């Protein structure tokens, strides 16, 4: 889940300002700083390199985040690294493969389902929202007859992002404890978005991130599939076929079931606010729970053609420029496709990713274009939400090194 309260930042960043009140508390490093791979990989990137890069990510997060990273490599053992603990006050290290809310990385799962339905001719990317959801996108200048399914997936609809509605932002920022089990339906949240005019008119080639788009996309997928819920579609079409045993969609159930970290932030009174158990992220814009290992498997399956026919995979990678992430080390900005970002590499070629920025949890999965290597970084907070620009720059560096197999640290 991401918003645009201040440019590419969202409600979560406004929340950081509202809750930041005490001195930085540095989380002690876990007992194990890294493992996996044993020695330098054939191309150069080693477990020691991963530890070095992950330490830089943690430093970019202010030192008060718990981090774990995994690099999967075809034909080789994975590289793993971690720093921090299982949560504020815990002496246990970060789990090697923690479950966490992947937030907006959910959008890639949903986009895959919609594209599968398109491949089966159950819907068309060129059909309008009005065709599938008559009267739902209307009022205050909104017109569902001008917005296509492709616009929803590519973030080119211009629709207002519901998380930036003042009442919703207030509930999340100032009244989290009272509203932590909020289970608002997508229909209600879309209706809230419709009380605001669009950011721009669709069809002009403009791009702006809006969680509202994926609520609508899921509602269309449910109708096109004959009434299956978006959760059932993701479970049956993605999770089960890939054997993602630690990936699930809890819905409004606020609890994680497997090993995970406690997510906290320091409140205005200096006391820790525990964000771990909550229901805010339960819809199709943010509702998946997964692990680094499962996310690597998912993105590698996507890149190697296991999830989509060639035509739909090509559609997913047809991009428009985005402007909400730093320019990567390659020096050229990337593009946003259908629930997927394409980012250039310094060693040539590209990689695919979709970040997730949730309530104190951050997912950064990526895969090389050939599917041979994938890397996922998970961050969770203990005292303050992160500076996303700083962290994203450090993550982009780690990702580029891992996928280019570029290492400097010597044998692990």
Explain how this protein is built:
31% of the residues lie in helices and 16% in strands. The strands form four sheets. Strands 1, 2, 3, 10, 11, 12, 13, 14, 15 and 16 form a ten-stranded antiparallel β-sheet that branches. The longest helix has 17 residues, at 388-404. Helix 2 (47-60) runs antiparallel to helix 13 (388-404), helix 3 (106-119) packs across helix 10 (230-242) and helix 3 packs across helix 12 (310-316). The protein has one domain (11-404): Beta-lactamase (3-Layer(aba) Sandwich), CATH 3.40.710.10. The relative contact order is 0.21. It is an alpha+beta fold and 412 residues long. The chain is built from 13 helices and 16 strands.
Tell me the helix content.
Answer: 25-40%
The helix-and-strand class reads alpha+beta
| Broad CATH class | Alpha Beta
Count of individual domains: 1
> What ranges have pLDDT less than 50 throughout 5 or more consecutive residues?
4-42
Shape: globular
Please compute the radius of gyration using only Cα atoms: 20 Å
Strand count, sense and closure of the main sheet?
10 strands, antiparallel
Give the strand content.
Answer: 15-25%
SSE pattern: HEHEEEHHEEHHHHHHEEEHHEEEEEEEH
What's the β-strand tally? 16
CATH topology: Beta-lactamase
Count of helical stretches? 13
- CA-CA gap between termini: 36 Å
Report the mean per-residue pLDDT as an integer: 90
**CATH superfamily grouping:** DD-peptidase/beta-lactamase superfamily
Using the 3D structure, state the CATH architecture: 3-Layer(aba) Sandwich
